[in-house]
Amino acid sequence: MQWTVKIATVMFLLLLLHMTRQLPLYGAEAARDFLSVVDLLYFPAGIIVASYFCRRSRWENFIFKFSAAWLIYGSIYSLTMPFSEKLQAISPVGVGLAQSIPIFGFYLTAPLVSAFGIYALSTVGTGIFKAKIVDKKVMLTLAVCAWAYVLLLGQGRGILGSIFIGFFVLALLGHYRVAGRFTLFLLTAVVVVLFISSLGITVEGRTGTVSVDTFVNRFASIFGSGTDEAGIDGVNQRAEWWASALKLWSQDSFSMIFGVGYGPALTDFVTPLGTPVREPHNSYLSALTRGGVLYLCAWIYMVALSISAALKLARMEEISLFKNLALSYFLLLLTMAIIGFVQPLFETPSLAFIFYFFGGAFYARVRHLRKERAINRRLRLLVV
């Protein structure tokens, strides 16, 4: 706990160092960039919430019902994606940085909900839907449709690749049954896609039709191969953004140690609509460029702490249901950490808070279980 407090102190001191210099200079743009550090407050928020439920022996009830509700309502909301434009038209609007942003009609978290659903189904099984919110069979059908819709039509290399890596890691850790169940789901998905193609049915996704060839070429584009030109362009574009950020970081010894700060855009790329791409689509590179080596090391420690806490909890929980649920969250946090290499995930508050909140909650739960078991050991020694 002491190390965590010290690391957090270093991170916020670095933030204050840049804030005093750059807030007057860059104004709202600097304030927006500061959010990537401010979002870390969700970690202690998770600790506080978990500590409250742990002290009152309500942890299992809380984490199970919260997870089920998030998965259920997230899946149902994902099914409204075909009506996104209509939802945005009638949605309440928030205003920030001279932009009007509809509250409804965006689906940034939908891929994460879909990934978590696959993880929960592979580890916990259909038991995740036992919460008395909706009928179990109805929810299972809706959820699977939502996950298939988001993942197959979204065709995101980052999220799909992370899911494969996650289950590969589980297999290395000895969870062969869970990895085998996922393999069965994957084979089923391939058969369904092949069946749809054999019927001559064309389903258009974000970058192409839903087919095995599309996904093969999508992943091949990472290495500059295949026929997915948009994917290859995206990879080349990221290489340019990363080079631009590294050039800023390496301009002098101060920026290398303390970073260039918050306010300047890290790339010189501008979209066709005239909006600058501020982040290089690599959260680790953003942390290095904005906060320097000191901040990057401190931040990676927080990320690793969150992931390891979920894995430790999976090993410490005594009830199999919650042991497997913790394993699902371990996969989710690992997925997010991997996606951070190719997307500005930790610079996006609606995504970052998921990681930090659960990371803090699992960290608190692990500490509670350790204290509880230490007390029980001492009591047993006294009785003997």
What is the count of DSSP helices, taking H or I runs of 4+ residues?
Answer: 15
CA distance, first residue to last residue? 32 Å
Choose one word for the global shape: globular
Assign a percent range to the helix content. Answer: over 70%
Counting DSSP E segments of at least 2 residues, the number of strands comes to 2
**Largest beta sheet: what is the strand line-up?**
1-2
Residue stretches low in confidence (pLDDT < 50, at least 5 long) are: none
Q: What radius of gyration results from the CA coordinates?
A: 22 Å
* Strand-pairing-aware structural class: mainly alpha
Domain tally: 1
Q: What's the main sheet like? A: 2 strands, antiparallel
Strand content: under 5%
Mean pLDDT comes to 86
Please trace the helix and strand order, writing H or E for each element: HHHHHEEHHHHHHHHHH
Domain O-antigen ligase-related: 147-298
Subcellular location: Membrane
GO molecular function: ligase activity
Keywords: Ligase, Membrane, Transmembrane, Transmembrane helix
If you had to describe this structure to a student in words, what would you say it looks like?
The protein has 384 residues and is mostly helical. The protein has one domain (1-383). It has 15 helices and 2 strands. It has helices spanning 2-26, 28-38, 42-55, 59-78, 84-90, 110-123, 136-154, 157-172, 176-198, 212-220, 229-249, 253-258, 283-316, 320-339, 349-383; strands at 93-96, 99-102. The protein has a two-stranded antiparallel sheet. β1 and β2 form a beta hairpin. α1 runs antiparallel to α2 (28-38), α8 runs antiparallel to α9 and α13 (283-316) runs parallel beside α15. The longest helix is centred in the C-terminal third of the chain and has 35 residues, at 349-383. The chain is globular, with a radius of gyration of 22 Å. It starts with a helix and ends with a helix. The relative contact order is 0.14. The mean pLDDT is 86.
